[in-house]
Amino acid sequence: MIRRATGPDETSDVVIVGGGAAGLSLADRLTRTTSRTVTVVEPPDGPARPPERTWCYWDRATGDLEEVISASWPRLRVHGADAREVTVDPEPLRYHMLRSAQFERWVHSRLARSSAARVLRATAGTVRDVADGAEVRCSTADGRELTLRARHVFDSRPLPALPPARTLLLQHFRGWYLRTAVDRFDPTVAELMDFRVPQPRHGLAFGYVLPLAPDRALIEYTEFSRTPLTTSAYEAALGHYSRDILRLGTFSVEAAEQGAIPMTDARFPRRIGPAVFRIGTAGGATRPATGYTFAAVQRQSRAIAAALRDGGAVVPPPHGRRALAMDAVLLRALDTGRIDGPAFFTDLFRRTPPERLLRFLDGATTLWEEWGIGLRTPVGPMLRTAVEIPFLPRRTRRADGTRPRYRESPR
């Protein structure tokens, strides 16, 4: 049940700031596996609420999320810049998609059935530690002030600025939900990367196609580079990709989405006070080299709930040290142009068993498996970059001179 703020001070065991993928996933997990009382603070309706987003991940099964999965694909395809394609079956893994609005309604309905949970529509302000916990200052849409107190606060709001980093790229994109006049898509195959699009002078670009029906799909144009494009530039790139490369013929655009995701080797602090923690993208859940977040958010939520159930409080690192070290090398190699991005990713899919590759991208491979995958990459440029990384300074940078706008959970 969504409740309005009702008093000057309210207390619960846990306050979660932000009702996106990270905040709602944690709230749902806590109410199902612990006896903690939970308050989720979400912005009121209006410009502060983010637009609907698409989230994707791969897993062996849908699990609890089966009710909100919009589509799934058993096969994945990559098109190289040379137009050659590789289609793989990563069994037992499947690629899943869900929409944020449906996910939010689903979690809200589950929270409404729990006497230990509530959702407050208010704008969260300062979060600070106090004796025996922390407090969150909030204001309601009608201007009332409210102070929430809790033993633990988990903040999922986007950071005002990214932490210092050696490398910062953006994964920026615009997508169309479109319908074609005739059947054009194979609903069993998701196109993860199509490098047949023109490549920018810096970074890389690719098309992304998620078929929803033979005549419907989400089609995106994506770049890994330092600065986002204008909306008109994305539109032009999407038009070229849809008409000239995919040759879709007549189609209509039913909806659009746009965003940018930081790809950075910055270190994201997960604990900012004795009782205040960051989760989601703000807590480093976005995988630096891919932009995927949703699966890491689910792992993080399970771990936090288990810790609180056992009497502790911890936000574990969303990704292992080896994975982050490899991502730092890859990002630097892409940013400097030492490796050909389209060739790098295409060769990974062509030369690596698909199930192992997806586990690698999820940080779930062994050191021996990672060694084998590393030998399939441009060894010289990657080694040169690995040697260079420890001597590079970390700087506070913004890709476009302004605060990067990013959506919380991408693919």
UniProtKB/TrEMBL annotation:
Pfam families: Lycopene_cycl. This is Lycopene cyclase family protein.
